[in-house]
Amino acid sequence: MEKKKCIGVDIGGTSVKLGLFEKDGTLIFKWEVPTRKEEGGRYILEDVADSIRRVLIEKEIHKDEIVGAGMGVPGPVMPDGYVEVCVNLGWHDLNPQKVLSDLLDGIPVKSGNDANVAALGEMWQGGGMGYTDIVMVTLGTGVGGGVIIDEKIIAGKHGLAGEIGHIHVRDEETEHCNCGGVGCLEQVASATGIAREARRKMKATDTPSALRKFGDDVTAKDVLDEAKNGDDLALEVVETVGRYLGLVLAQLAMTVDPQMFVIGGGVSKAGQFLIDVIDKYYRHYTPISENKAVIGLAKLGNDAGIYGAARLVLD
Amino acid sequence: MEKKKCIGVDIGGTSVKLGLFEKDGTLIFKWEVPTRKEEGGRYILEDVADSIRRVLIEKEIHKDEIVGAGMGVPGPVMPDGYVEVCVNLGWHDLNPQKVLSDLLDGIPVKSGNDANVAALGEMWQGGGMGYTDIVMVTLGTGVGGGVIIDEKIIAGKHGLAGEIGHIHVRDEETEHCNCGGVGCLEQVASATGIAREARRKMKATDTPSALRKFGDDVTAKDVLDEAKNGDDLALEVVETVGRYLGLVLAQLAMTVDPQMFVIGGGVSKAGQFLIDVIDKYYRHYTPISENKAVIGLAKLGNDAGIYGAARLVLD
Asked: What is the model's pLDDT at position B1?
């Protein structure tokens, strides 16, 4: 029987997202199961395997039709799939791709870090579709990244590849980042970073601003909405965010030189307005050539992980 | 006949370096020919082919023993070997790997940008020997770079990969870099940048310094020599250089996460003294993990290009 379907598994701290795909990238069916984190997360992979088995029966799909299953893990994954520790799931000293493969009667399973896997998904069927070399930047609670070259994830040799949220960009920063650094990109360009930047600007100046009504509860969305409305203080914050993001994209262009930068995560809902600000600074920091990667928006939202995971097993 | 030898060609603006290698990396013979740049560099590849043919006859090596020839080109090379323009050689609209292959009766020829090819050479038989993932940083008249992942060059989709000399690092810079940017790494960390930094510091302060006897003729070597002697002003310059280099290596660790950074070029003759300063700042900017790439010295000097070129045809 010709193998023509694949499964994507995206393991998150609250729920596991799963998707059944045609090899051409068509999503046939997607579903979720809760992430049972008790007892060191020992039930997570059993739940995943049970659920996959049930869906295959339900959909009358024979195991032999399945190329394999890919899996995104919320933490560092070694090249052979080994996970030393995954704090979000309670895993220690585990090779989840081996375990899941055994639980699924030997179906091939491949795994990767979830941010990297999401980047692969966006390359395959999302904002980066049609390209082979992209860097995805996810602007959420934190800032994550994934580097895809020749349709493959650059995972790095110590699980650090794509950790672009922790690139140092700001010398004048005084607070510490979660990573222990001071002045990381994440401290300015994440949703929490943008809100903090707005609070700081409100305190440091008397500039009238529509943001003041939110006080300390101001969110990144408020900042981007009011910036679109032309609010001066909000615009200043967005310029700061765009400048540091543009700077880091310029560094990436002069390191791996992809075809496209794909911007995703909650903050990217601000859309082309935000892209335009990032692009202005990106161009400012790359006068070396006009011929370089373009910047655009991610398209798959929370599904990027299942798409990328499914794509993992198609190599 | 088993093919077990390969040829490396490193085309420079003044001379072409060539090397005949065993597949295991042993250099059998190396030689040079002048680079004839007249008439748009039209004789360069003919000279290379003639010279290779002569050496093979001299050494009594049959063409069938040769796996192929690799070639480093001093400018951007497209993935198919196409060179739009190479100002250093006078080439326009040429596919030199195709031309050289034709001139050598169909021997396979592969090519790449010379900085990237040198990085591959250092990975194969130089400072990065034993590793598969390295980033090389060449501190010479300019600052060049090459990114090697899984034993392959990341060439980029627009010829920009590894152009780390033009990463913006210094907001307070006022002079322009050759690339059109302001505050590029190259403006601080190249031999010319280091000398300029020393001249600036001498003018800006009255600090007594052994460098003052050199006046405006001070060189990067003078700066590094006097820093080793404990000269305060020279040490300040080296700290500045090391800080920006450490910052960029940290960015690279959080982008492609190699096993090793290999530092080469004339400035790297300062040896472990310079590495230690870079390493101090590199660690400062990567608190996220202790488990990360090490920093060491290049070993092949000007031969890195022929080694890397020969390695190109072994995939």
From this structure: 62
Residues B95 and B109 sit within 8 Å (Cβ to Cβ) = no
- Give the CATH number of domain B129-299: 3.30.420.40
Summarize the confidence of residues A201-209 as an average pLDDT: 95
The pLDDT value recorded for residue A315 is 83
Fold of A5-107: Nucleotidyltransferase; domain 5 (3.30.420)
Whether A156 sits inside 8 A of B256 (CB atoms) is yes
CB contact under 8 A, A288 and B251: no
Identical topology for domains B5-123+303-312 and B129-299: yes
| Fold of domain B5-123+303-312 | Nucleotidyltransferase; domain 5 (3.30.420)
Return the pLDDT at B78: 87
pLDDT over 70, % of chain A = 100
Whether A133 and chain B come into contact, CB under 8 Å, resolves to yes
What are B282-291's pLDDT values in tens digits? 999 999 999 9
Please tell me the distance from the alpha carbon of residue B28 to that of residue B307, in angstroms, as a whole number: 11
Q: Where are the domains of chain A?
A: 5-107, 129-302
Q: Which residues of chain B have pLDDT under 50?
A: none
Averaged confidence pLDDT in chain A:
96
Q: Is B141 on the interface with A (CB under 8 A)?
A: no
Classify strands A27-34 and A66-73 as parallel, antiparallel or unpaired: unpaired
Convert the pLDDT of each residue in A24-35 to its tens digit.
999 999 999 999
Q: Which residues contact A271 (CB under 8 A, 6 or more apart)?
A: A297
Mapping DSSP to helix (H, G, I), strand (E, B) and coil, where does residue A33 land? Answer: strand
3-state secondary structure at position A264: strand
Structure token pair of residue A128: 């980066």
* Option in A161, A179, A247 nearest B257 (CB): A161
Would you identify the CATH topology of the domain A129-302? Nucleotidyltransferase; domain 5 (3.30.420)
ipTM value of the model? 0.94
> Using the beta-carbon criterion (under 8 Å), do B168 and A253 form an inter-chain contact?
no
Residue A1 banded pLDDT, cuts 50, 70, 90: low
Q: How many CB pairs under 8 A join A and B?
A: 132
Asked if B14 has any chain A CB less than 8 Å from its own CB, the reply is no
Rounded-to-integer distance, Cα A65 and Cα A168, Å: 47
